[in-house]
Automatic annotation (TrEMBL):
Region of interest (Disordered), residue spans: 619-641
UniProt protein name: HD/PDEase domain-containing protein
Domain HD/PDEase span(s) in chain numbering: 119-317
GO terms for MF: dGTPase activity
Compositionally biased region (Acidic residues): 622-635
Pfam families associated with the record: HD (PF01966)
Organism of this sequence: Corethron hystrix
SUPFAM superfamilies: HD-domain/PDEase-like
Gene Ontology biological process: dGTP catabolic process
Gene3D superfamilies from the UniProt entry: 3.30.70.2760, Hypothetical protein af1432
GO cellular component, one term: nucleus
Amino acid sequence: MNLGNDSHGYDRPYFSAREGTAEVSRDAFVNVGVASPLSAARSSTREISPFNASHPRHEKNGNFTTRELGLITGKRTACITHKTIDLDPLTCAIMDTSPFQRLRNLKQLGCVQHLYKDGTHNRFQHSLGVAFLADQTCRNLQHNQPLLNITTKDRICIKIAGLCHDLGHGPFSHIYDGELQKRARKSKALMAAGDVPPPFCHEEASLMMFDAILKELGLEMDRTKLDEPLKQIGDGINASGFGVKNSNRGDLTVLHSRDIIFIKECILGEPLEENKGQFLGRSRDKEFLYDIVSNRHSGLDVDKLDYFMRDTQHCLATKADFSLLIEEVRVARALCTDPMPGHQCRNFPNEPNYHLMTVWPDKLVVTAMGFFKKRMELHKNIYTHRKVKCVEHMIVDILEMAMPYLRLEKGLSILQAVKDPEVYVHLDDSIIERIQFSDKVELKPAQDLIKRLKRRDLYKFITSKSISNDDPDSEKYWNMDEEQIKDGMVHAAKNQAALLEEYFELDKDIIIVEKLKIHHGKSDKNPVDRLRFLSKAEMIDLYDLPVEQLPEAKLVDDSNYRSFLPHSFQDRMLRIFCKKNDPNILHSVHVAFEAFISGEADGPITTLPYSGQSLPVFLTQDDSDSSGSNDEEEITASASKRPNISFYEEIKKRSKR
């Protein structure tokens, strides 16, 4: 068999007039997202019509030319995390669209590759992994609790939600809808120029891009006919053939507009805004399906399971195996663990605040705690590593510098693109190269910073200050905003310069103040308290129980796993970075922050009120010196002879006298 490779990286049957037919191995691997050789382990083959296999039949459908979904050919892709992933015709149709292919050019971990060299996997791979785990979860529930009546359509909708949940991510992971958006909203110039759209999150953008996929396939959801096939709006997939293929003989379960709403609700993790707080995709007896991709109750879902496993494997060269949480998941009644504002809980009759939700056997409580500990570990050692954050701050500065001058398609700014799918589909990590090679003179500062990044002349981490709930002094600094802290550091630097009777002014624009909060999943609370568990006896009975007779899953008291609990569920700290790498400036920033945060210095201290807080002010006279000598004059004279020594070094020298 000859194989051709199409523009999306798929190995497809290649036909020639001489061959007439193609032999396709059912175990053939498809090269999707990751490199994989084609398997030829089995020799059993079958003949397929060359026209139908390579090009599904096109026909006129009103004013449009439409086609059917491809054949079920046993396509698979190799996956470094999950070994192999099966690809059904509907999944392939969605993958073969430009909004989904865009995910190839979005690094899953943004800037992490600058620290962990193998952290180069992309959101295309992650999305396939989430779809795989979502499908596996549904299959396990179908097998272990058949009376839940999970249909094939339910399963494929959950799989598509997992596949498309990250469509809305912008360049460099969470930088785009996080720090860049935050900085832009503080910029009066950008706001006045209209370059900043209304507040957005990547989940909302994912819904927009999912609509763009449907549009590219010639389809659209019809809210006036929720229980009918999608509306045909252009050339593409036939609306009456857009669904789950059960065989190659026309056995098809068509997706309706209500199913599209269900997929969107699963992506968003809550009801759509236009549905006024009500889930419309599925009825109450199937509300547990919403927990699989984005678990609104506990946060334990297949999205996190995949990236915990994948990121650990790529960055730390170890495996994080949470397969038991997929294999042992069940559905039961349970009290609402986290009532969400904005939409109503679906209550059982006479049992307010009860839900049908995903639960686990109580023997897995330690495994569940390990899942949340893994979250903390990855955030601390990978996602918020200080070197990674140095690069992230540089990327944000580059994008912020370029935003007033770089225009994308339709004249939109970098942030405005999130509101137009036709522009957003072209916005990915390559935006840095677009800035770098632009001939606009206004982009020169951003281009110079890109050169620093390419040479690894990175911003520098200076120091950090842990914030404790038991320390009211540190808490008051946490309650300040970043600009207040920078102003306080500048004041502290001036006061220390006054101590030496020399002029020194610290430029606040070179200081970056970061408020870092990392936790196990539920802020300072135990995340396992949001999970519900069943006993062994209750697990055994589930197979024969209909929804109405499901047992109540309970909270497991933490005394049963106390030795596995961390000392604290949340860490908070202030971290200081500097945009310069001159050692003298770095020392100056360091000592300014320490003086500001602690109020300690070598000399008398008074206080100057600042926004309701106290700042250290260092007096220029040392009244304790009764010898008549003026140490400050000696230090100043010494410093004038050695101009490259910072006042930080002078303070250290003075402290030794």
